[in-house]
């Protein structure tokens, strides 16, 4: 059966709201046009001026408020668009004020109020407002600059004063835009249409910004620009400066300016406080639930930690099960050993095994590091070193140097981390002849032979290369050495954890180790081992060990 899933895209309601604003503005404009016979009228001079003064005062207040907001907010985020806004709103508010004071019927303001004077201020102000918002829309909304805002302020003041002076003093230099008794001139109508088109283009730019950011403030600005389009449309058809269409245009103008300023206000002032308020609510919520969250997280950590400890304990038991018994007696050769990991898992390991009826093999090794990775390496190393049927055919089991050479080659075939390495000491003891053959694989502490007579001999005739992944550059040659032992002679094999630094002091110095070996050379091996353990405990004084401690002693 074939199933078909339909991809349903969610509809953005803000586009619908914008369309409704457009349709609502168009509807009102069309209703006024269709019902012109019933609605159209020329208001009285005083009545119109009262409404005009109220609407333009609102416009001026909104413009200068927006100027102050954008001018001082720029200091915080340095966005170039804010500088453009500040200049546009300052000039627009200034020219709206001169337009209001110069409207026909208003008191003398520098010069007599008149229709040409008010209309000229109006058309220049609307041109600057439309072009300014278009330029601002062309600037990327998040583009930042280091320009000084003072330049824009003084530039706006100079432009405003210059326009005010020229229009007020040299009004005759401008072409007529409205002729009493005839209505709007063709130039005035064309300029209004030009402004209308600029508003429409600018609205598209802000809709684009919304599409990129999904920030509703850009939709508010776009909505204000759309309403402003209808304001300009109304100013293309009025017949008297006091009629219904002129009043409708002013209402559209104030509504459009409010929406534009509202969007700018939200983006620069309201939005940061809303984000701060939301952040405070989140912090409060986190604080209220912090105890529960901490308790839950702690419980989860305890469970995970308990599982890890349980797994480590299993691994520890497996690792210890691979070690020989602490006390061994093989073919009249005695062994005693001790194994003290500094963590749950150790990087030290050793082995004692039977090769044949006359020969015993033994080794001790130290893997770099501690913990799980080192412990896993001990398992692999133990498998390679201990002789198996296949290994005995490939390597002479009675040649410790060949065993180490085989181990080195096998190690370099692996994918072990390049920094991991093993140092070890491998020996074979013939129980009949009591000949001890040995080879070092880079171990840094050499076994000590204590003869029955009290003579001390360090097994230093063989020094080899550590087992590491260096096979591409160097192939070491391991050489064995032999030493003849007599009945009752003892050899201690150990790792550096027994004699290395312990919190800035030596755990057991080699001379002290030799002293213990000599003092107990005629005593049982268990007594000797216990003497070493007592020395360790006395020096450590209950503190944790810095390294694994491993050793075993053989008596011929």
What does this structure look like?
- With 556 residues, the protein is an alpha+beta fold.
- The protein folds into 2 domains: 19-283, Rhopdopsin 7-helix transmembrane proteins, CATH 1.20.1070; 322-555, PPM-type phosphatase domain (Phosphatase 2c, domain 1, 4-Layer Sandwich), CATH 3.60.40.10.
- The protein is 56% helix and 14% strand.
- The chain contains 14 helices and 16 strands.
- It has helices at residues 13-34, 36-39, 45-77, 80-101, 115-138, 149-169, 186-213, 216-234, 244-321, 371-385, 389-394, 400-413, 510-519, 525-540; strands at residues 178-179, 183-184, 327-330, 333-340, 348-354, 359-367, 421-430, 435-441, 448-450, 456-458, 467-468, 481-484, 490-494, 501-502, 505-506, 549-555.
- Helix 3 (45-77) runs antiparallel to helix 4.
- The longest helix has 78 residues, at 244-321.
- The two termini are 82 Å apart.
- Mean pLDDT is 84; it is low at 1-8.
- Its EC number is 3.1.3.3.
- InterPro entries: Bact_Sigma-Reg (IPR052016), MASE3 (IPR033425), PPM-type-like_dom_sf (IPR036457), PPM-type_phosphatase-like_dom (IPR001932).
- Keywords: Hydrolase, Membrane, Transmembrane, Transmembrane helix.
- This is Sigma-B regulation protein RsbU (Phosphoserine phosphatase).
- The chain crosses the membrane at residues 12-31, 51-70, 82-101, 121-139, 151-171, 191-207, 219-238.
């Amino acid at each position: 059966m074939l199933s078909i899933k339909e991809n349903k895209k969610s509809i953005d309601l803000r586009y619908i709201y914008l369309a409704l604003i457009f349709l609502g503005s168009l509807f009102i404009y069309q209703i006024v046009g269709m019902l012109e016979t019933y609605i159209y009228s020329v208001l009285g001079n005083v009545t119109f001026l009262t409404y005009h003064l109220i609407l333009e005062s609102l416009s001026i207040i909104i413009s200068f408020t927006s100027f102050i907001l954008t001018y001082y907010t720029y200091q915080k985020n340095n966005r170039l668009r804010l500088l453009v806004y500040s200049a546009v709103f300052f000039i627009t508010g200034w020219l709206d004020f001169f337009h209001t004071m110069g409207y026909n019927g208003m008191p003398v303001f520098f010069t007599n109020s008149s229709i040409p004077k008010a209309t000229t201020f109006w058309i220049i102000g609307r041109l600057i407002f439309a072009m300014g918002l278009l330029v601002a829309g062309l600037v990327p909304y998040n583009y930042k600059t280091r320009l000084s805002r003072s330049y824009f302020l003084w530039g706006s003041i100079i432009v405003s004063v210059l326009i005010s002076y020229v229009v007020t003093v040299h009004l005759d230099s401008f072409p007529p835009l409205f002729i009493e008794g005839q209505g709007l001139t063709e130039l005035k109508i064309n300029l209004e249409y030009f402004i209308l088109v600029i508003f429409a283009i600018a609205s598209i730019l802000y809709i684009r910004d919304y599409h990129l950011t999904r920030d509703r403030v850009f939709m508010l600005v776009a909505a204000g620009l759309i309403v402003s389009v209808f304001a300009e449309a109304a100013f293309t058809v009025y017949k008297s400066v006091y009629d219904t269409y002129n009043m409708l245009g002013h209402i559209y103008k104030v509504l459009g300016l409010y929406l534009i300023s509202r969007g700018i206000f939200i983006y620069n002032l309201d939005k940061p406080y809303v984000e701060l308020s939301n952040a405070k609510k989140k912090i409060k919520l986190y604080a209220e639930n912090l105890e529960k969250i901490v308790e839950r997280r702690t419980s989860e950590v305890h469970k995970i930690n308990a599982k890890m400890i349980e797994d480590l304990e299993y691994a520890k038991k497996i690792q210890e099960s691979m070690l020989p018994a602490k006390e061994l007696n093989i073919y009249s050769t005695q062994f005693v050993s001790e194994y003290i990991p500094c963590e749950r898992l150790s990087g030290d390991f050793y082995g004692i095994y039977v090769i044949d009826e006359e020969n015993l093999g033994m080794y001790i090794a130290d893997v770099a590091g501690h913990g799980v990775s080192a412990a896993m390496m001990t398992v692999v190393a133990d498998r390679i070193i201990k002789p198996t049927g296949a290994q005995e055919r490939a390597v002479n089991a009675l040649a410790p140097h060949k065993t180490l050479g085989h181990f080195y080659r096998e190690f370099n075939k692996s994918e072990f981390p390049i920094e991991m390495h093993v140092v070890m000491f491998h020996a074979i003891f013939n129980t009949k002849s009591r000949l001890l053959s040995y080879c070092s694989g880079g171990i840094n502490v050499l076994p000590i032979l204590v003869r029955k007579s009290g003579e001390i001999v360090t097994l230093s005739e063989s020094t080899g290369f550590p087992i590491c992944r260096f096979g591409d550059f160097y192939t070491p040659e391991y050489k064995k050495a032999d030493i003849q032992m007599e009945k009752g002679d003892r050899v201690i094999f150990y790792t550096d954890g027994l004699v290395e630094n312990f919190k800035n002091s030596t755990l057991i110095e080699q001379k002290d180790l030799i002293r213990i070996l000599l003092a107990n050379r005629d005593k049982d091996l268990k007594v000797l081992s216990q003497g070493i353990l007592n020395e360790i405990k006395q020096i450590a004084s209950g503190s944790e060990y810095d390294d694994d401690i491993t050793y075993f002693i053989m008596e011929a």
